[in-house]
Amino acid sequence: MSTDTLRLAERTRHIALSPTMKGTIEAERLRRQGVDVVDLGAGEPDFPTPPHIVAAAQAALEKNFTKYTANMGVFELREAVGARYREAYGVTYAADEVIMTAGGKQALLHAAMALFGPGDEVITHMPGWPTIVEQIKLAGAAPVVVRTRIEDGFALHAETLLAAVTPRTRGIVLTSPGNPTGALLAEAEARKLAPEAARLGLWIVIDLCYEALIYDGVPHNLPKIFGDVMRDRLVLAGSSSKAYAMTGWRCGWLVGPKPVVQAGNALQSHSTSNINSIAQRAAIAALTGPQDCVRDMLNEYKARRDQVLDWLGDEPRLECAVPQGAFYLFPSVSEFLSPDGHRTSLDFADALLREEHVVTTAGEAFDMPGFIRLSYATSLDRLREGVTRLIRFARR
Ligand SMILES: Cc1ncc(COP(=O)(O)O)c(C=O)c1O
Q1: Average pLDDT score over residue span 103-107
Q2: Ligand 1: which of 81, 126, 129, 366 to mutate, most ligand atoms within 8 Å of CB?
Q3: If you placed Cys at 171, which of 203, 261, 369, 387 could pair as Cys (CB 3.0 to 4.6 Å)?
Q4: In which order are the strands placed within the sheet that holds 252-255?
């Protein structure tokens, strides 16, 4: 067979596979050998899906709610998303301004495909979740990356984002709270950014997938701040994944102006169709049912965050910003890197796994070498063990 017949489409050359998989594969190999692996790599809640949500799915199965639904998702669920945003943020979105998607990830892909294309520049920020940049590239547009810094807690600044605007800029994609930093776009910064973005005619896409996981009551009403000045150019991506411990159910949503929702609907109608019908019933229970499960998980994550930060404090060279949301810590390991030792944070994370059997995610995965991500979506016992091993390893 000639190599020509094996050539893949051009777009595949520009899209990278997530670099986080290597550690997972190695950890699995060690586990099979009976090694006691501490996994701080998880990008998902360790809690089970709350029972009333599972019960709603079981009822859907029993009632044979197992067929195609409306492509956008059932009306009641889209209304429930609107109601939740009204309650949380005081913004009004009707059911036809919401489309249910296979996780927040598909909502963000719809946004990128609907809004951006060849010749466009799209501003986003790093360290951050790598999918955003890859989706912008998949849409044929050029990502323009603004960097945030540990010195100010990886905070996003309106001024820095706006400084990256050129005549080709079509939009800005923001993640708040962020992964891996847990940093937020502060309301004060949003108030500076929104009128400028409106004046420049930019799209603002906000990845709110961790919106339910914000600590210490920090106000975070981005939908209202942007919506008040640029509702017709604001797209929100949300998800049941992290808030309700439902990552495997694949249920997210895009909320925004009707033309964007309709474009997402068209894209979805020719690719994945409606999201799983059973998950839709589960999501209705999640969004309209009691919210104390969300609060309980948040309190537990907060206790873990504070505890792990305290333990990490035993080794001040592992400098770490205090995250305001999500469930990750992102300490610097740069003090432990050297040309004749671990050269990079990727080497550091590999050796930490090999020698101390602790899974972390190297900062390279988030375009931020010199750091590692620790997920605290695991029990305090395992976290204690993991941090003990990490500090022992770092000091060696
Ligand atoms: C920052 C961020 N946004 C969005 C997502 C998408 O999650 P899902 O597709 O499960 O809703 C993730 C998942 O890890 C994430 O970290």
Answers
A1: 98
A2: 129
A3: 203
A4: 98-101, 252-255, 234-239, 203-207, 169-175, 121-126, 142-147
